[in-house]
């Protein structure tokens, strides 16, 4: 219901803006919501790939698009633009999240961060070992990095369905673990999933990176210069042989994390502006007609922005398009695989599918729980308050949900190998389903009885 008493106009949906969330709470809320959308897009992609529209679906993905001008043009299929272009935005947001967590977030305190870091390392090493044991050589061995990563949106979405049955800091633990996972996956992509290197292009990348770092050190806080030089770095990275999306990570780490004003300066600024706003308000209470009042309010808003770090502002502004546009489009373009029921047994038992499914479902569980248990027993770390190993087992199962980053690495590792790529995607989807369902059931059955140790 709308209310208008002459001084205030309030709509019901506006009440959402009155709720104050911490950066972590806001991050978790957005990730869980995007996880639902991601799941729907994956289902739609599977339907399209197995319906009467399958040919049109595949044709659309291979439609060529060209951008640029005479003498300098980039021509790629729609599928490549999504994976090389749009996903750079996703990696940029991932980079901003990594920088925040490392400098001021859950990973800033090394003592506090050691537990999720050790768990994440186990959750990367053991799945890789399982995959390599099944695919030790040949073309299939290129997929060893696929079962490393946990899809944070899917995993948080599954955990959020449990509501208050699980401790709040279990979500925090999963966030920290998945972010370390992302960092590991990024390093693997940079070091092991590259084409033939183009040295002049790499030199250009280095020059752009130097310029971006100089902007940071020089105190430049506007986003536009970073974005412009970042685009040039992305094009150079695209030509270099190193995957272009890594330009998003490098760009993110150059964005300033320190605000221009501290909180004390903000209070002074607000007090000064409020006095000026009151003076302007006395001349004319209608802000539409009162240009001075409108200017003072706008100046107040600009001052409030200056007390926020540019990296945090960009992360917040880009999280919505990344989570609700980029990743769903990626899912639509990459999750559509043809399913042949008669050949389902052969697909599941294929070495690539088996290695990925085993790595994600079994490897993640053994790695996360095993490394965590050893670290606690060796007194390297202690369990976070309110958590016990029943919770850690649940996270170990949920960690096997490896949708976005796993499929992305599969596209890199099996480019030009359609059979292996199909098997890899099938393994990722199967493992994610099994891991998500089993993790949910485990935590649902044990969380109401679990007590802190």
Task: Describe the structure concisely for a colleague.
The chain is built from 17 helices and 4 strands. By secondary structure, the chain is mainly alpha-helical.
Helical/strand content category: mainly alpha
Amount of helix: 55-70%
What is the string of helix and strand elements? EEHHEEHHHHHHHHHHHHHHH
* Count of alpha and pi helical runs: 17
**Could you please say which CATH topology of the largest domain applies here?**
Na+/H+ antiporter like fold
End-to-end separation in angstroms reads 48 Å
Poorly predicted runs:
1-6, 9-18, 449-453
| Averaged pLDDT | 83
Shape: globular
Radius of gyration: 24 Å
CATH class of the largest domain: Mainly Alpha
How many domain units? 2
Strand order of the largest sheet: 1-2
Structure report:
- This protein has 453 residues and is mainly alpha-helical.
- It has two domains: 20-67 and 83-193 and 243-258 and 309-447, Na+/H+ antiporter like domain (Na+/H+ antiporter like fold), CATH 1.20.1530; 263-305.
- Helix content is 68%, strand content 4%.
- The protein has 17 helices and four strands.
- It has helices at 23-49, 54-61, 78-103, 110-134, 152-160, 168-192, 199-217, 223-240, 246-252, 263-283, 291-306, 310-334, 344-349, 351-377, 389-398, 404-413, 418-447, and strands at residues 3-4, 9-10, 64-69, 72-77.
- The strands form two sheets. A two-stranded antiparallel sheet has the order 1-2. A two-stranded antiparallel ribbon has the order 3-4.
- A hairpin with a 2-residue loop joins strand 3 (64-69) and strand 4 (72-77).
- Helix 3 crosses helix 6 (168-192) and helix 15 packs antiparallel against helix 17.
- The longest helix is centred in the last third of the chain and has 30 residues, at 418-447.
